[in-house]
Amino acid sequence: MENKPRKRGRKPKKIPATETMDFQFTTNVPQNDNVSLPSIATTTTAATETPSTGASPSPGRGRGRPRKTGKHTEKSEPKSPERRLTRHGEQNGEFYVPAAEIRHNNMMGVVAAAEWESVVKVVPAMDAVVKVFCVHTEPNFSLPWQRKRQYSSSSSGFIIGGRRVLTNAHSVEHHTQVKLKKRGSDTKYLATVLAIGTECDIALLTVNDDEFWEGVTPVEFGDLPALQDAVTVVGYPIGGDTISVTSGVVSRIEILSYAHGSTELLGLQIDAAINSGNSGGPAFNEKGKCVGIAFQSLKHEDVENIGYVIPTPVIAHFICDYEKHGAYTGFPVLGVEWQKMENPDLRMSMGMGPDMKGVRIRRIEPTAPESHVLRPSDVILSFDGVKIANDGTIPFRHGERISFSYLVSQKYTGDKAVVKVLRNSEILEFNIKLATHKRLIPAHIKGKPPSYYIIAGFVFTAVSVPYLRSEYGKDYEFDAPVKLLDKHLHAMAQSVDEQVVVVSQVLVADINIGYEEIVNTQVLAFNGQPVKNLKNLADMVESCDDEFLKFDLEYQQIVVLHTKNANAATLDILATHCIPSAMSHDLKT
Question: Residue ranges of the PDZ domain (predicted)?
Answer without folding.
Answer: 332-434
